[in-house]
Amino acid sequence: MSSFNNESIQTPQDEEDEIKRQQQQEEQSRRRRGGRRAGVGTSLPDANSVQTAPPASLSRYAGGQFRAVKMQDREPVLLRAEPTANSKSSFAGLESEMMSSEMMLEKPRLGDDAKGNPYDWAPLVKPVDERCNGWDMSLVQVHELPLYFPKSSLNYDFEMSQLEDVLTRISYKLRSLSIQADLCHSPLSAKLQTCENVELYLVFFLERKTRKNANADPSTRVVSMSVQHHKGDQMISKQYVDQLVEAAKGVDTEESGAGAKLGFAFGRPPSAESVQAMEKLIERIVDDSSKSEEIASMAHPTFKQSPEDLAKTAIRDIHSWLEFPKRLDLRRNVLEYLTFMTDLTRTLKSTAIAGSLVVLQGKAPAGSGMDDEAKVIQSFVLTVLQNRELPGDRDMFEGFSPSTKDQDNDIEMRPYFPEEIDSSSRDGLPHFYVEYMNELFHMALQVLVQSLEVVACFRNDLTSQGWDLTEMAKHIFVTASQVGDSKDLYSVLLGCVGRAETKLANGYLACKALRLLAMASPGLKERLKLDENAKLSISNAYQVGQTCHSLLQDESYQLWETVRQ
Hints:
With about 575 residues, this protein is of the alpha+beta class. Helix content is about 50%, strand content about 5%.
């Protein structure tokens, strides 16, 4: 008994006092909690019980203190309180902190935000100053000119001190020409792709010489620029190279847009009056030439055909190429022929209208008896647009082993900007076939846009012939769903708009096609207005075009305005 401490022995009276004291503390704590819930003001706890100072951002809130109380472990929860009129200013700091973390998840807003009502498409706000993507001068590294590099491939040379100005001018020229660019800082270069799928390689080299002498300042060392053709049409490539060199030199050309002289689909289309005036000039030249017997005897028999005969000959030639489905090269010939046939800057009005009706309606000129051939051509174009492959193509590549498919692993042979599409539907096909059909898809999209432009340009002439543009728009969607395994042409075009950042040219053409179809079809316009995905895709395309593609910016803006009207 002596081993126990007498202070540790409690009497029954002490136990009763301890219980009463605990009950009083619980009652006081319950009253404090109840008063706070009811909004009754209570006094703050003693300063000695406060062990952690409150944050500065919360020091303005009434009743906000941290106490030394053990809390339960719970999952983190973000609580947002709605500020009252009196405490609106006190939440300014907290809201600014929350906005910084939510900006990346917020949908891009253009103009006044229109929430709740899908019909309310707010007007777009164009930027006051022109923005442009370019190189970061702090990261630029110019490599030495290789000894084996041919001197004839250097397009322009300048001093190192002028490098920043040259890069700035080239950056703005790339945007005005609507050239998609992949900029590289080391070595200083860029991979370029035009709207016509022409690929160029821009690179800068630092030469070992200076403008004055070998011991001069490093800023006087010579930098050479080379623009090399990588893939695509040589003539179009030469035009782009010339304009880039002129921009590097600081020469301000009058024709700043790609559509000024580089293609009908990639610029402002000619008016019906200008086309008819050009045809009258051609007819006068032909009449003057026919008066000379020597020139008339040398004329090709094709030139003696009437416009109707020229259209029938074109349809017959195109259909004959499609009779060889395993000839992949003839597919490109078909789309190239249709591209020229529907280009008002390269053909006659009658031929352009005939080609457009073949693509959009599957109809040949009246009295030609070639409607079946026209339907085959239309089916081919729409199948390429919908599926990016033709029936029977998988059977051709059935014997290809994986090792055979991947023999060509040269990265430089791959396209600079492959479009990011769902690759699950392309399983079992060699990569060179997929890339080839992607190029044909771009050409088919261009043919569709030019055909819609021709119909819009000569709306009055077609209406007088009994054509209803609204029914034409409905027919193209119905026919596309029939040949495309129930796929929707609307989804295909809108998908290109949504992926505009990876393939700017396809995004631009898709915006133009949707705008022309929406102008002819009120039903499609209503569908676009109710589609939140369309609203987001068009706004994203507009923002991308602001910095690197002027045609995409202008066309997405026109599409947005067409839908909201």
